[in-house]
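Exercise 7. Given the components listed, write out the predicted structure of the assembled complex. Treat all entries as one system.
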Amino acid sequence: MTATLFAEQTLNGLQFGVMLFLMAAGLTLIFGIMDVINLAHGSLYMAGAFVGGTVTARTGSFLLGVVAGAAAGALIALLLELTVIRRLYRRDHLDQVLATYALILTFNEGVKVIWGPAPIFLAAPEMLSGTVEILPGVPYPAYRLAVICAGVAAALFLGWLIGRTRTGMLIRAGTTHRETVQALGVDVGVLFALVFAIGGALAGLAGVMAGPVLAVQVGMGEQILILAFVVIVVGGLGSVKGAMAGALLVGLADTWARAFLPVLLRGLLPPSSADQVAANLGSVAVYLLMAVVLAVRPQGLFPRHA
Amino acid sequence: MRERLAAAIGLCLLVAAPFVLEAMDEAFLLSVLTRMLAYALAAAALDLVLGYGGMVSFGHGAFLGTGAYVAGVLLHHRSDGSALVAWPVRIGGTAEALIAWPAAALVSGLLAAAIGAISLRTRGVHFIMITLAFAQMVFFLVLALPQYGGTDGLMVPGRNVLAGASLEGDAPLYWVALALLVAFLAFGRSTMAARFGLALRGARMNERRALALGVPVYRLRLAAFTLSGAVAGLAGAVLANQSSFVSPDLLSWQRSGELMVMVILGGQGTLFGPVLGAIALLAAEEELAAITEHWMLILGPALLLVVLFFRGGLWPLIAGKRGDG
Amino acid sequence: MTIARRRLLGTAAALPVAGLAAPAIAQSGPLKIGMITTLSGPGAALGNDIRDGFNLVVKNAGGRLGGVPVEVVVADDALRPENGRAIAERMVRRERIGVLTGIVFSNVMLAAAPVILPSATYVSANAGPSQLAGEQCNANYFNVAWQNDNLHEAVGQYVTQKGLQKAFLVAPNYPAGRDALTGFKRFFKGEVVSETYTRLDQLDYAAELAAIRSAAPDAVYIFLPGGLGINFIKQYAAAGLRARTPLFGPGFSFDQDVLPAVGDDALGCFNSSQWALDLPLPANRQFVDTFEAEYRRLPSLYASQGYDAALLIGSAIAATRGRVGDRAAFAAALKRADFQSVRGSFKFGNNNHPIQTIYMREVVKDGQGRVVNRTIATAFEAHQDAYAAQCKLPA
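Answer.
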C-alpha cells in the first residue's frame, strides 16, 4: 500500500461522496422544510440525465446539456409539487411514500416510452475527457475533478442561499416555526414550491453530471436514491451540513472498503476466501456504517433541531 | 356486523373456489390464487406493524424472501443429501413442513428482531429509510451466496410434505395456504383486540401518553415487528412451495413497496383489507399487462389516484367501517 | 402477423363461455407460439431486441413460420422469475401453447423450465444456464444462442493466443460473475493477477481502476452486464487506461444495445460473439438489412438470436407440418437444425446446445461514424460447451 494509491483512493471516495451529496442535498432539504419524503427524487435525477443527454446530443454543447438537465429537474419538480406533492403535506409519511412510489413506476415507464428501453449516450465534453496528473505518476480523470468542483460549488451555493439570503432565512424559519412565518405574511405555498424546485434542480444536475461516468438508463434513479437515503440517515435528516458529512463518509467508506479490504484480508486469510470475504464485506460496508452510526446516534451525526 | 358478514362471504368464496374452478376446467387458476393467498398473508402481517402499530416498514420483502429461502434451502439440502450445517452437529435438509415452515418463521423473526432492535430506536421517516436500507443489505448478502444460486435464484426440488402427507398438485397447497391465512387473521384480530393490540394502537396514537401510563412502547413494538416478520417469512415458505423456486427478487425493495401498496389498497388496520388488496393488486397487474406492454403507465397513476383520493382502501367500502389504522 | 396479448383473470368473469369456446378456437386459429421475455426494467432492451428479431422472420414470411400461420403471444416477465413462471404456467396449462421461446435471463429461465418442459418444447434465444446444459439437460429444451460460458471461454482462448501474460479480471460478486471468470480461466493459460468481484449495484469503479493501474496487467477482462458495463467502460476510458491496457469482454457488454450509449469510449475494445454485424453471409446481410429497414436501428446479437430462434422453430414446423404436439417428432426436427443461421455453420450437440464458431470483434467506427463491431479473428471453431459431457441425452 503506497501513499499515492491511498491518496488516489481517498480522492475517489470524495468524488463519489460529492456526487451523492448532490442527490442527498435536495432530498434532505425537502424533508427538512416540508416534512415530505420524496421517493420520486430519483426520477428527477433520471429525467435530468435523459434531458441533458438529449440536449447535449442535439446542440453538441455539454454545458447546455447541464443547464437543460438541471432545468428539467426543476421544472418537473415544480409540476409535481403543484399537482401531487402539495396534496401530501398534511398526510402521513406512509401516503407520501406510496404516492411517490407510484410516481416512480410512472416515470420509469414514461421514460421508456419516450426514449426507448436502451440506455442513451452522454459523453463528457472534449476538454474534460483527458486526465490530469494530480500527483507524480497518478493521472486522474479531468471530468471527475470537474464533478468535485461542481459539487463543492453547489454546496457553497446552498450554504449561501440558506445562510445569507432572505429566502434562506424564511426557509430556515419555515423548518422550525412554520406558523410564525405564515403570520409574517409569507406565502408558504410559494416557499415550498421554490424549495422543491431547488431540490429538483440539484437532482437534475446530479443526473446530468453523472451521465458521462454512469449509464443513462431507466431505473438509474432508484440505485442512487437508496444510497442517498443512507447518506441522509447517517448525516441527520433535514440538515444540509449533515448531508455533506454523510455523503463524504459514505463515499469514503464505500471506496476504502473496496480498495483496501482485499489487501488487508489477504494478510489474514488464505487468498481465495480473502477475496470472497472482502467482496461480501465490501457489498455491505455502507449499510454497516449506517447501522453503527444509528446504534450510537439514532438521529444521525447532525440532527436537525426541531 | 357488516364487516363480519363480508369476511364470511369472502371466506365462502375462497372455500368454494377449488370446486368451482375444477368444475369449469380452470384448475390452473388455483395456483394463481395460492400465490395471491401467500402475498395476502405477508400483507396482513405487514398490516400488523403498519396499520396497527404505525411503523412504516419499507423492508418487509426481506422477511418474505428470507422465509422463502429457508424453506427452499432445506428442501435443496434434503434432495441432494448434503448438510446444511456440518459442524459442530450435522444438520441436514428436510421436506417436512412442520419443521421447515416454523424454521422459516423463526429465521425471519430473528432477522426482524435484529433489524427492529436498531430501527425502532428511530421514528417516522428515519424508520422508513432504515428498514429499506437494511432490507437492501440482506438482499445483497443473499445475492452473494454462491451455494444457493445468487441472482439465479434457487430451484426448489419438489414440495414440502405436511406431517408426511404430500402437498403436490394445486389443491393441497391451496388449502394449506388458506388455512394459514385464516388462522393468522383470526389470531391477529383477537390479539389486536386484546391488551397487546390496544397498547400497540395506543402507542401509535400518543406515544408520550402510553409511556406515561407505563407501557413499554419499545418492547411492544419490537414484539409486533418480530411477529410480523415471522409471519411474512411463513408466507415466503408458502410462496417457495407454490413456485418451486426462490428468487432474490423477493427481497428487493420493489417487493417491499408492493406489500405496502397491498396494505393501503385494501385498507390498513383491518387485516382483512390487505388480503383484498393483495388479491386486487396481483389481479390488476395481470390484467393490465395483458392490455399493454406499458402497463406500468396505467398502474402507476392508478395507484397515485388511490393514495390521493381514496385513502380508506377497498375493504371499508365493502365492510362499511374504517380500519383502526 | 397477429401479436395477441394474454388474457387471464378477465376471462374468469366469463368462465363458462370461455371454457366452452376456447378449445374450438385453439384448433382452427393460427399456431400459437409463446414468447416470454423482458420488456420492462433495466433489461428491457434485450427482450425488445429478441422479440423484434423473432417478429421480423414472421413478418418477412407474411405471418407464417414454416409455411404455417402463427400467432406470437408475447408476455413481459419484468425480469422477475416469479412472473416468468406464472406466465409460463398460464401459456402451457391454460392456453395449451406447445412451443415457447424468448426468455432473456437465466434466473427466469430456471424458474420457468420446470413448468414448461413437462408438456411443451422450449427454444432458448438467450439464457443458457449451465444446469440445463449439463445434468438437467432435456430432450425438449433447445438453446439456439449459446451456453452462458461460451463467450467468456472464447476471450480466454484469444488472450492466450495473443500471448498476453497477465490478466486482471473483474465481475460482479454473484454466481454468474464467478461462472464467467471460471469460463475465461478455463482457456486462459497466463497469470491472473487479480480476480476482483464488485458490488452488483456498483456505480463507481474508481477504486478498481486505481488497482488496475497499479497492477499494470497486459489485459483486463470484464464481465459486467448491462449498465454496470457501460459505467465501467466509460470510467476506464476516462481514467486513461484504454490507451495503456486493452479491455476485453464478452459480446454482451459491447453490442448494439449498449454501444450507442457508450460511444467513442468503447473504441478499441475487444469482445467475443457467435455473431457479428459484418459477417459476409447472404442470410446475415438479409437479416441486417431488413432489420434496419423495419426498426431504424442496427440489430444486436440478441436480435440475431431472436431471428435465428424463429428460423429454427420455422424449420421444425415445416418438417412436422405444424404438428408441434408430437413432441418427439418436433424435437427431432429441431435437432436437425435445418435452417440458414445468420452466423453461418450451426449444429446442436448432444445436450441440444450449439456447436458453433465464436468470433472476436473489435469496436470501431464505421463509414457513417457509428460505433460498431468489426470481426477480427476466430477464437473457436466448432466449439462445444463444457457441460455437454454431463448430459445423458444421445448425440
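Discussion: The mean pLDDT of chain B is 89. The two ends of chain B are 19 Å apart (CA to CA).
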